[in-house]
Design goal:
This protein is an alpha+beta fold. It has one domain. It is built from three helices and three strands; from the N terminus they run αβββαα. The longest helix has 13 residues.
């Protein structure tokens, strides 16, 4: 997945208000490790932007697996907060 596209998609999901999400946004500060992207406040969640996108779209386990597959450390959550 191209990093810039993943960043744009993550930004869009972060700002979406409609339709209402069936999952909550993480109460965390999301920091991409492979492109400039930082959103939110709270405990820091670091990982590749594609993993952050997966987390934002309600797939925390897939986010962890993606980060591990890329060889980057995942400090993320395994369930939405």
């Amino acid at each position: 997945m191209p990093r810039a596209a993943a960043r744009d998609a993550a930004d869009r999901v972060w700002t979406m208000r409609f339709p209402p999400r069936p999952w909550p946004l993480p109460k965390a500060r999301l920091v991409a490790t492979d492109i400039e992207f930082t959103r939110g406040d709270g405990p820091e969640v670091r990982g590749p932007v594609a993993a952050l996108l997966l987390l934002l779209t309600g797939r925390p386990e897939a986010a962890r697996e993606w980060a591990e597959r890329t060889g980057e450390a995942w400090t993320g959550v395994t369930t939405p907060a």
